[in-house]
Amino acid sequence: MRNITGLVATTVSAVALAGSLALATPAMAAEAKKDAKPLTPAEEGKKIAFDRGQGNCLACHNIKGGELPGTIGPPLVAMKMRFPDKKALFDILWDPRPTRGEGTIMPPLGAHGILTKDQIEKVVEYLYTL
Amino acid sequence: MKKFVMSAVIAGLALTAGTAFAQPSNPSDPQQFTEEFREYFYKRFPNIPKAEYNMGVYAILPDARAQWEAAEEFPPYMDAVDKGKKLWAAKFPNGKSFEECLGHPAKGLRAKYPFFDTAANKVRILESDLIACQKANGVEKPMDTKSKDLSALSAYLSYESRGLKVDVSIPNDAAVAAFNDGKASWYRKTGQLNLSCADCHQYHSGQNARAETLSPGIGKTVHFPVFRVSKDNIVRFQNRLLGCMRDTRAVPFPEFSPQFANLEYFLAYIDNGLEINGPAVRK
Question: Is the pTM for the entire model greater than 0.90?
């Protein structure tokens, strides 16, 4: 059923958004960074993951310390143990479709330009602390 | 504290496990498809009485449902309903009215829509026809999709059809094609987030996106328009489609476009037999 219509990724574009999965502009992220001490990559990764305008992972995943988590995806726990290969974890964030199938609802964060390679690497560092 | 976090995690796991339902097949015959589609939800939510799918997400959230029922005592949409009633009764500059234009009194009109117009060969949407009436009768500034008058009329017309049952028919092959086009939109992944309506309202229905519980695919159309407490306004069905599609980070189809008209037709056909209970109140 899921593939009946194929993956017509129509109308892909960035627009102003509202709603539960809504994402804000990159400018807001820059704003949040003002006068901060240099953060470790993992700390930066946490910010990216929690920010509604960036990873917005809490829309779907329960993550320790996150408020109002969604329950659409699996809770992100024991990541290092479950993904001893860092590259495999990176790949799922970049584009889950090759390993999880075209029907997966986990967004292709890298492949669709939601996060950059550098941002995803930081999120991976953060996930390894969970 | 730690304990709380753990139990939340377990709840998350349990719900996630709930997605491992068999994928239904996809018969091209609308009636057969509809039966299988409904069966999917009946299995997924065995505790929802079939007639109560018209409550949307409240069918699966008992607490929120109690709040909804309390809100019905002083319904916040009555101002809109009253305004819609006046607008309905008003005359166009040429002396005609909506009733003459549409050839039907307010009572029961909502229950006639959406329908497949075999002469025009397309799905007709009530709110779009209201605008067309104004245009055809010389109204200087006809309503548009931003118009509060349009949502007021929409609320009034739902109110006047409360208790009637959805009865959408598929009269010919072109109508079957319209239904199947709407169905394709339901399953098509869109936007930067690569999500379909089915991803949220079928395969993950009952689960949460942040604090929002995702309503099931049956009963989407029957309680519209809805009064959104958080926005203090009335949201029409086509407007909600636009909002959900935009949330996938796609540029949505315009309201009343063939794509959205067919999507409404598809979902309304799924709702056949349910009681119309709009307008409803939502967060």
Answer: no
